[in-house]
């Protein structure tokens, strides 16, 4: 049976099996505060992990509590996170989200999300400015162990190349389209392994097709251009 005759659940299962075989099974680290992760993920938008981490470290060093972030002049927040880019937008969104959090839950914590199902939590978070589906899904997956596979630029690119979604499908639509087909209990491992795969093998500009263990699953028209 060829990959083209398999349904999407079967194809995703093949992918997660091979990713774990070659890159190892990725396991959830355990419960942590969702608010911290969400602010970190806001800072990650349109930048790399290194600059995101630097911006978050500077923000927490300058303002050790979330209350101090809320009370600070927005220009000071902007200065602290400038290294991550889009600092004016991100600083305003961070302050607004923190204010909403304490109004909604009475504290600077999102642990109450643990009492909600995935759809309710996602809907609540994405109703806030600056919080997209990726940010919400990453937060729920990383901190509360929800069985989700967030879609960032790497996951979207690989999903298109493997033919899981069509070329014009947005990141948000990719998340919703793939969600019902992700093998149960394997969302975290799939997401983390796709990130690793996207950075090391299926890169945006020069994919290492020659070393790809998903070669037979790939439906990308540019397949094989770079056989490193």
Question: How does the major sheet shape up?
Answer: none
Q: Report the β-strand fraction as a percent range.
A: under 5%
User: Spans with pLDDT under 50 lasting ≥5 residues?
Assistant: none
Architecture (CATH level 2) name of the largest domain: Orthogonal Bundle
Q: How many individual β-strands?
A: 0
> How would you name the oligomeric state of the polypeptide chains in this document?
single chain
Describe this structure in words.
The chain is mainly alpha-helical and 228 residues long. The protein folds into two domains: 3-27 and 150-217, Endonuclease Iii, domain 2; 34-144, Endonuclease III, domain 1. It contains eleven helices and no strands. The protein has helices at 8-23, 34-44, 49-62, 66-71, 74-81, 87-105, 118-126, 133-144, 153-161, 171-178, 187-200. Helix 5 crosses helix 6 (87-105). The longest helix has 19 residues, at 87-105. The radius of gyration is 19 Å and the shape is globular. The mean pLDDT is 94.
Short overview:
The protein has helices spanning 8-23, 34-44, 49-62, 66-71, 74-81, 87-105, 118-126, 133-144, 153-161, 171-178, 187-200. The chain is mainly α and 228 residues long. It folds into two domains: 3-27 and 150-217, Endonuclease Iii, domain 2 (Orthogonal Bundle), CATH 1.10.1670.10; 34-144, Orthogonal Bundle (Endonuclease III, domain 1), CATH 1.10.340.
């Amino acid at each position: 049976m060829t990959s083209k005759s398999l349904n999407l659940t079967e194809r995703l299962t093949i992918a997660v099996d091979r990713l774990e075989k070659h890159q190892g099974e990725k396991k959830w680290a355990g419960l942590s505060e969702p608010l911290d992760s969400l602010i970190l993920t806001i800072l990650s938008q349109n930048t790399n992990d290194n600059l995101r981490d630097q911006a978050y470290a500077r923000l927490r060093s300058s303002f050790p509590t979330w209350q101090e972030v809320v009370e600070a002049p927005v220009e000071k927040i902007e200065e602290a996170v400038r290294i991550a880019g889009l600092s004016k937008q991100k600083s305003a969104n961070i302050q607004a989200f923190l204010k909403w959090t304490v109004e909604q839950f009475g504290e600077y914590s999102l642990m109450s999300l643990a009492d909600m199902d995935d759809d309710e939590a996602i809907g609540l978070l994405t109703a806030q400015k600056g919080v997209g589906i990726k940010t919400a899904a990453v937060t729920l997956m990383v901190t509360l162990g929800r069985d989700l596979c967030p879609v960032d630029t790497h996951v979207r690119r690989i999903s298109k190349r493997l033919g899981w979604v069509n070329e014009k499908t947005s990141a948000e639509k990719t998340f919703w389209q793939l969600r019902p087909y992700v093998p149960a209990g394997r969302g975290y491992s799939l997401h983390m392994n796709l990130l690793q795969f996207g950075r090391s093998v299926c890169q945006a500009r020069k994919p290492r097709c020659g070393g790809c263990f998903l070669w037979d699953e790939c439906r990308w028209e540019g397949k094989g251009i770079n056989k490193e």
